[in-house]
Amino acid sequence: MEPAALDRIIERLVEVRSSKPGKLVQLSEAEIKQLCVVSRDIFMKQPNLLELEAPIKICGDIHGQYSDLLRLFEYGGFPPKSNYLFLGDYVDRGKQSLETICLLLAYKIKFPENFFLLRGNHECASINRIYGFYDECKRRFNVRLWKAFTECFNCLPVAALIDDKILCMHGGLSPDLSHLDQIRNLPRPTAIPDTGLLCDLLWSDPGKDVKGWGMNDRGVSYTFGPDKVSEILTKHDLDLVCRAHQVVEDGYEFFADRKLVTIFSAPNYCGEFDNAGAMMSVDENLMCSFQILKPAEKKNKLFYLVARCSRHGEDTLGGKLGSLSLLFFFIPSRRCFPFKYKSCTALLNLSNRGTKVTLGWCGHKRLTFMSGYQNGGRDFGGMLLIVA
């Protein structure tokens, strides 16, 4: 890839930091495919267990929150001012997965010995096919581009060792891990299997009430207790396990007497969690400090909602109740017309007579105040005032 062409891509991706968050950067399909191909070759030339040196900055999940990724670089210094290790989950859920992964791949190509990316469980076709990245690729480009990313993701390394003392991965430990050479010898390119060492490195979670290995509520891999963290540190003469994979309120959270740390770098995750994001800086003496990205302040949004739906089910008093599938129209309270509408499915719990909404949800968002009226028969309609 021509250095000048790469620099132009990076410049276009970074210049939006002075714009309103959410502004798209429309690279060409050819440019993005070239990022995938060139970075894939670099990943394959480097080991599956990266051996890195401090000082370095470590970041957790980004999940397509591109403006927050740019904030991380503003705080920590844009490459090559600082060395970086990202722990995976670059895509899905956020609105700008393409910008996020393109900038990360571009920096990997530009600074291959100073900028490092590990694989997360969302760098997997079977996962990002469902949670947003596939749809974003298809909407903005085509499915072929998503497949190019899949081939690239299948080549990502899965763990890193910093100065032989800090072991990093996306998920966590594995009962199949007895020697670090097992990580080095994992085959690539590869999809993520449903079980085994690779699966666990990307999927497992610590559990404070767990001793040994336990079941994981995700339905994949395991949970592990503090005893297993101590065991692997002692066996391999390590000081710390560093991982991501879970939302934590302050952006970072220690476990097992500070022998393990979880880092999550997407503040106000999905717009639903009030969490901070964090970046961990490791200095030359392996002292760890944290830079915190505070979540943006939430403001209540006032909408009028026009809805019409059918109800099913009766309560013991004969009133209508149940989950209502609504096609509704968000109308800003400023009453500006014409307005754009958005269809969505909401869950509303009606009072026992079916004439008053007592609680509502739209997606993951709780509708904290609602008023409306019954429109006769089996329908509930009219104007609902919502503060969300």
From TrEMBL:
The lineage of its organism: Eukaryota, Viridiplantae, Streptophyta, Embryophyta, Tracheophyta. PANTHER family: SERINE/THREONINE PROTEIN PHOSPHATASE, SERINE_THREONINE-PROTEIN PHOSPHATASE PP1 ISOZYME 4. Its cofactor is Mn(2+). Residues 118-123 form the Serine/threonine specific protein phosphatases domain. It comes from the Eukaryota. Transmembrane segments: none annotated. It catalyses: O-phospho-L-seryl-[protein] + H2O = L-seryl-[protein] + phosphate; O-phospho-L-threonyl-[protein] + H2O = L-threonyl-[protein] + phosphate. SMART domains: PP2Ac. Its EC number is 3.1.3.16. Keywords: Hydrolase, Manganese, Metal-binding, Protein phosphatase. This is Serine/threonine-protein phosphatase. It holds the Pfam family Metallophos.
